[in-house]
Amino acid sequence: MKSRHPSAAIGLLAALALSLAGCSSTKEPSQTAQAAPADMSGVKVSGKSNSLFGFLKPYRIDIQQGNFVSKEMVAQLRPGLTRDQVRFVLGTPLLTDMFHSNRWDYDFRLAKGSGEIMTSRVSVFFKDDLLEHVEGGENLPTESEYLTLITNSKVGAKPELSDTEIHQASPVAPSSATK
Q1: What is the C-alpha to C-alpha distance for residues 4 and 139, in angstroms, rounded to an integer?
Q2: Over the stretch 4-33, which tens digit does the pLDDT of each residue have?
Q3: 3-class SS at 30?
Q4: pTM of the model
Q5: CA-to-CA distance for 34 and 15, rounded, in angstroms?
Q6: Which of 8, 73, 115, 162 has the most crowded CB, counting CB atoms within 10 A?
Q7: Separation CA 156–CA 114 (nearest Å)
């Protein structure tokens, strides 16, 4: 039995193939997100990815990697703290290099399902097992700004990094030097 409308069937198949072709992407993830330059602190936020036909968006989970370090945490650091005290304030470092044992790196990356990417890096340097100086961390978000970012309290709204000054505070940590 022959089809009475072969051109209609071919047209329907072509339309179906074109609509499904939009579901896959040939671009690299770095090309779909609009990259923003990093500032001196190393915090970088990129834009959102495109959607299919402007309204169809596949579900993507938020992926957090590394150590989140806030303004409040960096404000507690001061020269002379021991390694244990720094670990108490910032947590276990993500990177410890056996060739540079006096440097700890706290890298952080948050890839939101919307395509927005936030990255930061804080490096801590020691001399004679005491904190010497810290690099990065000038424009980090506060803890409340980070919570707003991960909970999506306003749909589509990006939290602004505040210019609030965080004053130095002494960390409440057990001292390993007293034993």
Answers
A1: 68
A2: 677 777 877 766 665 655 554 444 444 444
A3: helix
A4: 0.57
A5: 31
A6: 73
A7: 9
